[in-house]
Amino acid sequence: MDKTFNLYLIRHGETYLNRYKKMQGWADSPLTEEGKAIASETGRRLASVKFDRIYTSDSGRTVETAELILQENHYNHDLIINRRKAFRESFFGSFEGEYSEVAFQKVAQDQGYSNREKLFQKHNLEEVMNFIKESDPFHHAENYKEIWGRIDNGLNEIINNGQSDNENILLVTHGVIIRNIISKFSNEFDKEMEIKNSSISVLKYSSNIFKIVSFNQ
User: Fold this and answer.
1) Is there a contact between 24 and 16 (Cβ–Cβ < 8 Å)?
2) Which CATH number fits domain 5-90+142-214: 3.40.50.1240, 3.40.50.2000, 1.20.1740.10, 3.40.50.2300?
3) Residues belonging to the active site
């Protein structure tokens, strides 16, 4: 029998680096008080969902968000949080901690564009991620192949470790990770819109494929 499950993709709550509009990939900062409150609100929205498994990245901001969500849940206070590097945010290399506007202005100019908006108008997500690696003076930033390789490994673990049919699985991760997953399995959504902190996207896995049920809600 084909495995089926519902995957609830949640972006972590607002952090201080989010608030200051700085690049935050493998760098980590705590949730703001507002970030904690919105994460708890997301937990209340999902309070009646009985989760069977919980995954996060290995970053503190996703673990804290997952804990706040579970505190509001009616069923799952004793579930283990599986922390996985596979779901860590994209690494931005020497752009880590830089103002996002400054970093993307450099990436755009390196590709011959005057600003970020024109860069994104002309190029897809995969190309932009490759450009970030090119523009990083150390070339340590992850490109598309590198980041999708580990996302794919993480998703395969979720698929292969299913214990029962029709599971509900919570994955608290990051904006770029969610954008890549949505982009991989659907062309129907505007993947360039901002992934809101503590937003919910739901995917249904059935017949060996993911389908997007809702996005960035």
Assistant:
1) no
2) 3.40.50.1240
3) 12, 89
